[in-house]
């Protein structure tokens, strides 16, 4: 099992901290009363420290602690090896498989078709296929929280020049960037954005170098969609906004706010369906919406009292409106461009 160091976030700190935050937020799964733990496997192409995958892993470990799952996982799976690992888990008696198949869509779906008695809950850029009834899809529709983090960023930037470093320009990333940009413009209508994608889900050094170039080009605040960006911000003494997880404890003077993804509602919906015997092809993306508890704005922590009141008021107003359905954050999956 690989342990990654040197990015300011340790595996133990991230995962234990995530579990503690989960419990305090009331998102820990309830103990099942009668159902046997579901034999479950997590299949990840990156280390479990990586932001996106860490949220799945934390939710699965919490469900295991609650007696709902018998969970194991494999990380750092190459796309070319993904189908083999899927088959090995299926042959071992796994009943629920969770993971991300963005880079291996066709091959993964072919494997799922070979094991109709296994429930597959997979991160995917595509919708569910009714012809493949045992594979449901999800992704992190956390545009609500991303928009709110943008409001804070728009209030904290002094130059209106914001750098944004992403992994790949796929819908799951694009929609969050667009929502963040929309939030920024609420407070700074004439803001400009430097947008770049590093072509990797986990390359902190490359993300850091890309961020340095943006700072050299005038950015005074960074959107850290990837690990490594906040390290650059910290070294250059500028601010950053986090994504998916809360890294402020590691960057207390740098990370102002973060849009958090909570995978628990997605996983709990799948567990319920597997236990009921009616798991089917479906789009679980809706469970990432704020109104379902799938995302939230991280506590301000060290930046409490440092955010302009006008921004806090708008965040509170928009949060209430998002929850009651009177305000909808636009979902824009197109690739964002520098402006």
Description of the structure:
- The protein is an alpha/beta fold and 339 residues long.
- It folds into 2 domains: 11-141 and 262-292, Rossmann fold, CATH 3.40.50; 143-261 and 294-324, Response regulator (Rossmann fold, 3-Layer(aba) Sandwich).
- 38% of the residues lie in helices and 17% in strands.
- The chain is built from 10 helices and 11 strands.
- It has helices at 11-24, 51-65, 82-91, 105-114, 143-156, 171-187, 204-216, 229-235, 264-276, 309-324, and strands spanning 38-43, 69-74, 96-100, 119-123, 135-138, 161-166, 192-197, 221-224, 239-244, 255-261, 295-297.
- The strands form 2 sheets. It has a 6-stranded mixed beta sheet with strand order 7-6-8-9-10-11, sandwiched between helices.
- The longest helix has 17 residues, at 171-187.
- It is globular, with a radius of gyration of 19 Å.
- 52% of the residues are buried.
- Summarize model confidence as the mean pLDDT: 89
Total discrete domains: 2
CATH architecture of the largest domain: 3-Layer(aba) Sandwich
Q: Report the CATH topology name of the largest domain.
A: Rossmann fold
Rg is 19 Å
Q: Which geometry do the CA atoms define?
A: globular
- Side by side, the strands of the main sheet go 7-6-8-9-10-11
Described by strand count, sense and barrel closure, the largest sheet is: 6 strands, mixed
Alpha-beta content class: alpha/beta
N-to-C span = 42 Å
CATH superfamily of the largest domain: Response regulator
Oligomer state of the chains in this structure = single chain
What is the succession of H and E elements?
A: HEHEHEHEEHEHEHEHEEHEH
């Amino acid at each position: 099992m690989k342990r990654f160091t040197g990015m300011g976030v340790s595996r133990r700190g991230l995962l234990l901290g995530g579990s503690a935050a989960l419990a305090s937020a009331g998102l820990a799964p309830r103990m099942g009363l009668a159902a046997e733990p579901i034999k479950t496997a997590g299949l990840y192409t990156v280390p479990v420290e990586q932001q996106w995958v860490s949220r799945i892993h934390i939710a699965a470990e919490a469900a295991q602690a609650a007696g709902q799952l018998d969970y194991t996982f494999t990380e750092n799976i190459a796309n070319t090896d993904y189908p083999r690992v899927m088959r090995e888990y299926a042959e071992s008696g796994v009943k629920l498989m969770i993971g991300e198949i963005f880079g291996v869509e066709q091959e993964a779906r072919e494997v799922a078709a070979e094991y109709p008695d296994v429930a597959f809950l997979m991160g995917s850029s595509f919708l569910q296929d009714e012809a493949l009834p045992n594979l449901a899809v999800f992704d992190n529709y956390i545009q609500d929280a991303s928009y709110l983090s943008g409001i804070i960023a728009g209030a904290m930037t002094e130059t209106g020049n914001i750098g944004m470093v992403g992994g790949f320009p796929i819908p799951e990333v694009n929609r969050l960037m667009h929502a963040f940009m929309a939030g920024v413009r609420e407070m700074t209508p004439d803001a400009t954005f430097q947008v770049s994608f590093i072509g990797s889900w986990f390359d902190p050094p490359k993300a850091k170098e890309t961020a340095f170039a943006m700072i050299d080009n005038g950015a005074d605040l960074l959107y850290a969609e990837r690990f490594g960006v906040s390290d650059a911000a910290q070294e250059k003494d500028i601010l950053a906004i986090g994504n998916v997880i809360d890294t402020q404890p590691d960057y207390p003077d740098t990370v102002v706010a973060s849009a958090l993804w909570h995978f628990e509602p997605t996983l709990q919906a799948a567990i319920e369906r597997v236990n009921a015997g009616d798991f089917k092809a479906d789009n679980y993306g809706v469970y990432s919406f704020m109104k379902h508890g799938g995302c939230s704005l991280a506590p301000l922590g060290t930046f409490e009292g440092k955010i302009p009141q006008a921004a806090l008021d708008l965040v509170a107003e928009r949060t209430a409106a998002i929850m009651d359905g009177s305000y909808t954050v636009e979902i824009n999956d197109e690739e964002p461009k520098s402006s």
